[in-house]
Write a structure and sequence with these properties.
With 339 residues, this protein is α/β, with parallel strands linked by helices. The protein is built from nine helices and 15 strands. Strand 9, helix 4 and strand 10 form a beta-alpha-beta unit.
């Protein structure tokens, strides 16, 4: 029990952001740490995740996950080491994945913790390629978008945690053409040179619809949407008959204070018989065994590249989150928590 510290630092949301979040919306506070009660484990968090969906939880609106409570610790994916256990099946030294990030030490209900094997993959990968972003990409492409060999695929936000995997999954499984958009010329180069995209463009360099038509002159069959806005409108124009769009995120609109206008060309979905379907990773837990088997194999063979942008220190977690919203990450944004 000597490993249990007296206090743990944790991030609280102290006011609802108006538009873009700012540092003053958050506070890093200390909370006491105690030995776990029966059925619970105390985890020293080693890595935590910052993800786009967390911005929506900062608003006081009903959604598929409850909003963050003011003056309480925020939560999110984390992986760490068990330092004390009062739960059967868990021992000190075990590594676990759980949902109580944004803090140094987490008192976790053992029923909501999953053991992970540090010998199979780096622990941080269970927050990215082998975790929620990876399964989102896998389910969104193969199940929701019904991807098939020979499809042409367009991915927006293609250098991010989900998008960078979607494009590579499509390439590995025989896409005819993979196109991505990103927010800098260096990311565009990485999409083509490192991730194997056939074409990519910087959406800041001109109208998205024009650049997409040039990159996909024969149209696209699948669109994986991480951005919304002008990207979704452009994709609807470029989708072929019976095209499918997976609606995963709309990061372009997350910090808007006014409702975003819908795509102005939605009527095209009728004649083209398009399918536009949202994806929530929680609906696809049944894919987990196949997902891990496939993706671990692609990583081992070198077919798949999984990048991370790592920010050190819990004190820098909110800046990492804001940087992720600004698109400063390549691949998964991770905060490594130093004890």
């Amino acid at each position: 029990m000597s490993q249990i510290p007296a206090a743990s630092r944790e991030w609280h949301l102290i006011r609802r952001p108006q538009g873009w979040p700012v540092a003053e919306d958050f506070a890093l506070r200390e909370a006491p740490v105690a030995a776990p009660a029966p059925g619970r484990i105390l985890v020293r968090n080693l890595h935590m995740s910052v993800d786009p969906y967390m911005r929506g939880r900062m608003n006081d609106v009903k959604s598929y996950v409850p909003p963050f409570r003011l003056d309480h610790p925020m939560d999110g994916g984390a992986v760490g080491e068990v330092v004390a256990s009062a739960a059967e099946g868990f021992e000190a030294g075990d590594h676990v994945l759980h949902g109580l990030g944004w803090r140094e030490y987490a008192d976790v209900d053992a029923a909501h913790a999953t053991k992970v094997d540090a010998s199979l993959a780096p622990l941080s990968s269970y927050l990215g390629v082998l975790g929620m972003p990876g399964l989102t990409a896998y389910a969104g492409l193969f199940e929701v978008a019904s991807f098939k060999e020979g499809d042409s695929v367009f991915v927006s936000g293609a250098a991010g945690a989900v998008g960078s995997l979607v494009g590579q999954f499509a390439r590995i499984k025989g896409a005819a053409r993979v196109i991505g958009s990103a927010g800098s010329d260096s990311k565009v180069g990485m999409l083509k040179d490192k991730y194997g995209f056939d074409a990519a463009f910087n959406y800041k360099n001109g109208p998205v619809a024009k650049q997409l038509k040039e990159a996909a002159p024969d149209g696209i069959d699948v669109y994986f949407d991480n951005v919304g806005g002008d990207h979704l409108e452009a994709a609807i124009s470029s989708l072929n008959v019976h095209g499918r769009a997976t609606l995963c995120g709309a990061i372009a609109q997350y910090n808007d204070t006014e409702p975003a206008p819908g795509p102005r060309n939605l009527a095209l979905a009728i004649g083209k018989r398009l399918r536009l379907q949202g994806v929530l990773v929680g609906d696809h837990a049944g894919l987990q065994p196949r997902f891990v088997e496939d993706v671990a194999g692609w990583l081992r063979s070198g077919q798949l590249v999984a990048d991370e942008t790592v920010v050190e220190g819990i004190e820098n977690a909110t800046e990492a989150f804001l940087g992720m919203l600004r698109g400063e990450n390549t691949g998964k944004m991770i905060v490594s928590i130093t004890g």
